[in-house]
Specification:
By secondary structure, the chain is mainly beta. The protein has strands at about 5, 10-15, 20-25, 35-40, 45-50, 55-60, 65-70, 75-80, 90-95, 110-114. Strands 2-10-9-4-5-6 form a six-stranded mixed β-sheet, with no helix packed on it. A four-stranded antiparallel β-sheet has the order 1-3-8-7, with no helix packed on it. The relative contact order is 0.33.
Length: about 110
């Protein structure tokens, strides 16, 4: 099983940027399609973006053009560059396999102030 540790969250003003990282254990990381997910306060966890093992990407409509998902297989790390942040992006952000989920990590909190 892949174990995942997210980091990089924080408090940022609207319009600002953050870069999230997800460190994965295990040698099979490069063979998995991976995704970012988020859980806004009081809401269900939702899909944000995915990247295939061969670097094809897909984004949820509300983040298209603002967020960029990438991966470094040599470092077993997944990234999410978030630009032009909005208050509605406030959430706990998680990484996981896509679409077949594995165990969740602890997530990283992102708070966007208006």
């Amino acid at each position: 099983q892949v174990q995942l540790v997210e980091s990089g969250g924080g408090l940022v003003q609207a319009g600002g940027s953050l870069r999230l990282s997800c460190a994965a254990s295990g040698r099979a990381f490069s063979t998995y399609d991976m995704g970012w997910y988020r859980q806004p306060p009081g809401k269900e966890r939702e899909f944000v973006a995915t990247i295939s093992w061969y670097n094809s990407t897909y984004y949820e409509d509300s983040v298209k053009g603002r967020f960029t998902i990438s991966r470094d297989n040599a470092k077993n790390t997944l990234y999410l560059q978030m630009n032009s942040l909005k208050p509605e992006d406030t959430a706990i952000y998680y990484c996981n396999k896509y679409p077949n989920l594995g165990p969740w990590g602890q997530g990283t909190q992102v708070i966007v102030s208006s």
